[in-house]
Amino acid sequence: VSFALPLAQAVATGDRRALAKAITLAESTRTDHRFQADALLDALMPRTGGALRIGVSGVPGVGKSTFIEALGLQLIAQGQRVAVLAVDPSSSVSGGSILGDKTRMERLSVQPSAFIRPSPTSGALGGVAAHTREALLLCEAAGFDVVIVETVGVGQSETTVAGMTDLFVLMQLPNAGDDLQAIKRGVMELADIVLINKADLDDAAATRAQATITSALRVFGFHGRSGAHHAVPVLKISSTRAEGIEAFWQALQDELTRRRDSGDFDARRRAQRQAWLWDLVHSRLLAAFKRHPAVHKTLAHTLVDVQAGRIAPTVAARALLSLFETKT
Ligand SMILES: Nc1nc2c(ncn2[C@@H]2O[C@H](COP(=O)(O)OP(=O)(O)O)[C@@H](O)[C@H]2O)c(=O)[nH]1
Ligand SMILES: [Mg+2]
User: Fold this and answer.
1) What is the pLDDT of residues 234-258, one digit of tens each?
2) Ligand 1 center to residue 222 CA distance, Å?
3) Which end of the chain has the least Cβ crowding within 10 Å, N or C?
């Protein structure tokens, strides 16, 4: 690899400050930064793909950060380098990160083999999650073995994160079995592994939740995103006591082995790269469309007419697109 940019060189040596800088560049909305970030990613692309990408989701307070810290510490003890990225779509709304204190993961963050990056505050073009894919690749280029993406169960973020990771872990509370909201909302079908956290608080409830979710997964016919014909593991853990973390890691390794053997692992990554490309094409085309002078001039009142039912959306779309296609 020839490093066009000194920053790329620094990232490739695993320098955490360079990595932080590179991610900031990728999150920037400035056009010149965007070009630099593209060049950087281009230079580092051959060094990406080597990490295991894990998504972790669940309602605020379920214990995601506590779990990630416990897992991270164990992995680091085994000699692995661990990066954590947080996606928090609500942070720009609430003005503060709902990921809260534990997001700092104080014990993990002091480890030389750890890198923790909170969510960009706000204003990131195309949503907060848009640049997490780039951050993930940059972490890989910096030599991290495992990249964990933490996201709250809000809006589209779970789907987005499941779409950029190899395995999606859904965390539940011991009373999760009592109401199957997550299953109704269609989030459960994204899960590759389900964890019932805080089993230390009420082991009987955790066991009930485990049984309910296991049978619900069977009834609904969810077999994991890869479509493999085996049950999604549902495990009880206690993140504060670091109990069940090893069993989780073993379940994850078993699933990985199965997917590598079947080709599902590579297929998922191929599909994700292609989806990313289309996402970018869609969002950039839409931005260009809205910027187009003739479209820009008529868009507002066309929208009003469409909303009022005075113009059919089909007709309006055709008219706007033909304006867009006209040379200016
Ligand atoms: N008893 C118990 N408390 C936990 C466990 N995991 C997390 N917590 C606590 O739950 C609260 C929320 O944890 P946090 O990791 O910040 O949740 P997040 O919002 O999902 O990231 C904190 O006070 C944790 O100490 C657990 O396994 N058992
Ligand atoms: Mg958190």
Assistant:
1) 999 999 999 999 999 999 999 999 9
2) 27
3) C
Cα angle 152, 199, 204; round to 5: 125
Q: Where are the beta strands (DSSP E) in 89-243?
A: 114-117, 146-152, 167-172, 193-196, 234-236
Is residue 100 pLDDT above 80, yes or no?
no
* Distance in angstroms (rounded) separating the CA atoms of residues 302 and 309: 10
The structure tokens listed for 174 are 């011991």
Q: Please, what is the angle between helix 293-308 and helix 313-325, to 10°?
A: 180
Q: What residue spans of the chain are helical by DSSP H?
A: 6-12, 16-27, 31-44, 64-77, 91-94, 106-109, 132-141, 157-162, 181-184, 203-220, 245-262, 264-291, 293-308, 313-325
Beta bridge partners of 243: 238
Task: Tell me the C-alpha distance between 288 and 217, whole Å.
Answer: 43
* Ion ligand 2: protein residues whose beta carbon lies under 5 Å: 64-65, 99, 103
Closest residue by Cα to residue 65 from 190, 73, 25:
73
Higher-pLDDT residue of 28, 259: 259
pTM of the model: 0.87
